[in-house]
Amino acid sequence: MSIDPAAELPFFYGSISRSDAEQHLKLAGMADGLFLLRQCLRSLGGYVLSVVWNLEFHHYSIEKQLNGTYCIVGGKPHCGPAELCEFYSKDADGLVCTLKKPCLRSPDTQIQSGVFDSLKENMLREYVRQTWNLEGEAMEQAIISQAPQLEKLIATTAHEKMPWYHNKITRQEGERRLYSGAQPDGKFLVRDREESGTFALSMMYGKTVYHYQILQDKSGKFSMPEGTKFDTIWQLVEYLKMKPDGLVTVLGEACLNGKPENFIALSLFQRRPIGNGYTPPPRAISTALPAAASLPPNREVLPMDCDGFNPYHNPNDVKRFNIQRSQLLMDEVELGSGNFGCVKKGVLKTDSGQIDVAIKVLKNENEKLVKEEMMREAEIMHQLSNPFIVRMLGLCNAENLMLVMEMASAGPLNKFLTTKKDTITVENIVNLMHQVSMGMKYLEEKNFVHRDLAARNVLLVNQQFAKISDFGLSKALGADDNYYKARTAGKWPLKWYAPECINFHKFSSKSDVWSFGVTMWEAFSYGGKPYKKMKGPEVIRFIESGNRMDCPSVCPERMYTLMKECWTYKHEDRPDFKKVEESMRLYHYSISNKAKPEGDAAAAEPVK
């Protein structure tokens, strides 16, 4: 779930009214330059800066721009609300004064959630459920990994799923539908106008139908004529259920469009008190059925669009471990090979359809020990179920022993990045590494140690979807154990190993964290080889001397800081994957859909 960028600011109060903000400022002493930050009720992701000057209150709207920056109307853009406030503490730049003293929340004052906050979170869930038919943990993983992209989709397309949206109907047909059945005041619908790209609101009052054009300005905001502007149509509709804003009355009962399969459940709109104590009237609850997935035009492909996000459509497919040879179709072309044998592309036939797979085929002449190792890898992988981990679909013992895994056709991350330097953005890499951190957090929670995390073992389904693979060295720890100790050293990837692995053969989730740092370095180096041309012993001396690899040239500072935290020498001082994933997620959310600020504008104006 996305976290409000201002949530950690001690002078941020959340969704409070103007009068509540002024009351807080009064209690804090009304000094010149005293200020607080609150959520804007009109725009998604926007804020209001409330400032005291000469014993008067001044309120400035802060809008989130399409490029992800924040600015006061007419002011300079900033990458976040904290940076904006810091700027205005040094330069008034159109405000009545500089920001001098924050009005801090008292310890017992909680940040007030906004009138649309819970609505948005529920809408995300319903959107994911209906679009990709995901539930439970798969749904949560989808939302956490892709929250910025999903919120953007909700903002621009959610009205199409609403029961009050009737798509392209004429004015006369709108009237016919409103007159059909009961005709309470406030009964309404939204429809497309005959003029392409515009909308109309039709509503009932006193047994008469009134029609209002929904205006959209050049910046894309929606409003009634001379009314309050909103980022989305659904947000405008919710507001009009509370205040008429130029209508003959507030909106009440929705005139249903007769297509329940397209509804986002009306249980989203449960009554919820807001800043002024007003509770919206209750609405009916729909029993919505999931809609078939469809990919809107001009939308980028998301991980959830791929079968690999949740390949099982039948619960029985998950339970099966032994696969019959007759279920497999195998291509002769090899995807890769090694001492164990080779990997071939294939298709697995299941009760619910066909799945593209990668088949790891063991050479018959391999020793019994290799076969046992391959069996153990299959058993380990079959226990794991996470969208960001390559799934082991089963084992087939026919002419050869074969491990059947889901396909990640874009190949290893390091090779992919090496060939795509000109097309893969830093934001894309951050997104992929966040997905890897989510997979590793899952392993940590399941008490698994990977022991071979590296960019070569991160496979891509596509440019936006990564999966952790190769569990040949993995270990399941006992319930009371927090590390595994290897009896002897093998052919270990020393450049990815933490000091305690090399020196004492001790492996834990914290040693996987070290490897994650090296994998990050590879990713931000676009597939570069860590430690350049150093040999294993040289790497050990390099680390023991307190040295760490330099920051890759395109790597953001916050990401390099996280890398260095992962490379903390003492394992007990390293972050765990819960902390690593949180750091990756917050940075991923903060840069999603951002671009470089473009230009400045005129002076700032207070909100009227």
What would your notes on this structure say?
The chain is built from 15 helices and 22 strands. With 608 residues, it is α+β, with helices and mostly antiparallel strands. The chain has 4 domains: 18-108, SH2 domain (SHC Adaptor Protein, 2-Layer Sandwich), CATH 3.30.505; 118-242, SHC Adaptor Protein, CATH 3.30.505.10; 311-407, Phosphorylase Kinase, domain 1 (2-Layer Sandwich), CATH 3.30.200; 409-593, Transferase(Phosphotransferase), domain 1. A 5-stranded mixed sheet has the order 4-3-2-1-5, with helices on one face. A 5-stranded mixed sheet has the order 6-7-8-9-10. Strands 11-12-13-15-14 form a 5-stranded antiparallel sheet. A hairpin with a 7-residue loop joins β1 (34-39) and β2.
Which terms would index this structure?
29% helix; flat; nucleotide-binding; 22 strands; five-stranded mixed beta sheet; 19% strand; SHC Adaptor Protein; Phosphorylase Kinase, domain 1; single chain; 608 residues; EC 2.7.10.2; disordered C terminus; Prot_kinase_dom
Biggest sheet architecture: 5 strands, mixed
* The number of domains: 4
Kindly report how far apart the N and C termini lie.
33 Å
CATH fold-level topology of the largest domain: Transferase(Phosphotransferase), domain 1
Task: Give unreliable regions as ranges.
Answer: 261-295, 593-608
Shape: flat
Number of discrete helical segments:
15
Structural class: alpha+beta
Radius of gyration: 28 Å
The strands making up the biggest β-sheet line up spatially as: 4-3-2-1-5
